[in-house]
Amino acid sequence: MKTPISLLCACLPVLALAAPYTPADGSAVIEQLPRRADATQMALRGLRQQLTARPQDLALATGLAQRYIALARSETDPRYLGYAQAALAPWWRQAAPPVPVRLLRATILQSTHHFDAALQDLDAIIAQEPANGQAWLTRATVLTVQGDYTKATAACARLSALAAQLVTVTCLANVASVTGRAAGSERLLDLTVQRSAGAAPELESWAQTLLAEMATRRGETALAEARYKAALARQPRDSYLLGAYADFLLDQQRPQDVVTLLQDQQRIDALLLRHALALQALPVRPAAFQAEKTELAARFNAAMQRGDTVHQREQARFALFLQQDIPAALQLAQKNWTIQKEVPDMRILLEAALAARNFAAAQPALAWIAANGVEDVALHRLVKQLGPLDGQKISTAKKAGVL
Known about the structure:
Strand content: under 5%
Number of helices: 22
Shape: globular
Distance between the termini: 47 Å
Oligomer: single chain
Largest sheet: none
Radius of gyration: 21 Å
């Protein structure tokens, strides 16, 4: 059967729960809650009331959890992930819950970087239902983040008979873009997008965001920006997209555009970080920058106390660029590298190693880039900056396969 588009957003990156925030001023506005008259919120309240009366109703619980997961992404509100888990409470700790619950549990586990647990659930689903397209798609996403490109490609390939062509091609392009096959996969994906007019907004946005990232990695800034804007036109509150576009703008030395883009989005840690990085480049707002820097420090400290490792990439950027704490940044980047290996993970590890003048610390990322043929102009600039300076470094690089 074809993968339902209504579940597509469940396989995409969802930011984890933000750390608790204590306002410095009693008059500060902490949150603007959705209006009680909002149609979506009214519908959710109705479903919650029904579930309270019938907590064992599987169809009702999974339907509500699915809507919460979709909202966690579209509204950049990670609290909805907790609500989704609560809806699944009767089955959450079961070793082998029903397949619909297990799939949603895997999605939530993925979003909090419990990748191995998510894969266990996904593998069990596939063993029980080999034609479950959503499980294959989510599995491919997790494996790509972990850097297991062979298995990720195989999972994407299984989608050809189970999902729409745009889903399959986007999945495959996501892997190909970091394994030396960027040019051909970008052309195919662009053509597939053009042929898929009328696709669901979240699917079009996913594909356009990936196309924008691919153009960015090639240094095609005008094309990348056009694609980011096309994606935003479809999903203007997508937190992953907002973060990716903000990073693009920061690299283009356009901090004011980042401030405008992320207005009222600072509740999410990753977006607050990018907003603070933009304010740092705007010296006319020193008070606002210091306030956000202090708030980020409190959030990251709280996450560390909880043992939460979800934000290590962002925390490494915070330590390096906002706190100028190079040893801490390098340690965080190295810890993050053991968990996930996407292009931003490679970049922060190289940046921290360069700042620390620690050539050895850069070796895992340098070797990874060389071995997989990763194409990215920003990464390659860092590779050149980290280039061997003496005979010992040259020997080390050759052994690692970098040269």
